Input
Amino acid sequence: MGMTIDSMNNPFFQQDILSSEQYTKDNLNILVKVSHQMKEVVEKHGSLDLLKGKLITALFYEPSSRTFASFVAAIQRLGGGFIPLQGITYSSVTKGETLEDTVRTFACYSDAVVIRHPEVGSAKKAAAASTVPVINAGDGVGEHPTQSLLDYYTIVERFGKIDGLTISMVGDLLNGRTIHSLIKLVSLYPSVKINLVSPEILKLPEVILDKIKKKVKIFVTDRLDSVIAKSDVVYVTRVQKERFTDLNLYEKLKHYYIVTPQLLKKAKKSTIIMHPLPRVGEISADVDSDPRSVYIKDQMRNGVYTRMALLSLILSRN
Ligand code: ASP
Output
């Protein structure tokens, strides 16, 4: 590859990735550059052998399609091997094994552990027990710092910058871990404006809001139609059914917002529509063919390139 990063300049070497708070403008620049190189290499050659001889465990205690598969794709395109643990029902976890013991085991078998777990803070707990780097692939309603990386890369790829953009975050801001991670990232740029669009009951947690509002301009509303015309990015999320104890309440809220071609008539030509997926009705299928929709092709592909970048930086010195 064209650019190499020596170990002194590689801030990710042997590091855990637990929260978006670990990203800085400088280390994001490195990730964007390396992700771009990964994209070029994959498009030209399909794969490379940066992780030859390395093994990575994918330990998933919660359902996942894209995150799991894109990590596996990233590992394989880098020439590495993986230990998949997705059907946790068939593992010793069902015998009552602690998270710490499970992680200690896989740290002995592999060079890194990617973990998804329903509890907030579980990745941190896993990292404390592990002798190899741990990557948080979603800890309950906490964070999803590799999704935010691909989201960030998708925005930068389209606009060439984050500075000055108006970003509307829509839907379940209370439980949506992709929102919790992405908002920390984009608020590194003081000239960004963030519209928080949700029903009152699904508002962004105060602890996050308090930190963010010191950094960037925030506008809170429950009306998507009132902000759509001024948005550069419309980041839509699903109402997180699995976090509700009252399913009647979920039913009432699940289609609070539906992005339709009609609504998008108000949006700018340059606006992009994002979604971490899966969607369950909050973006209608006839929006998919709109050139402003980036949730199918761009975000999905970028998920592989950014995870390739992150894994190679964590596991190889330069
Ligand atoms: N796939 C994303 C996540 O794991 C978004 C979602 O499930 O709504 O958080």
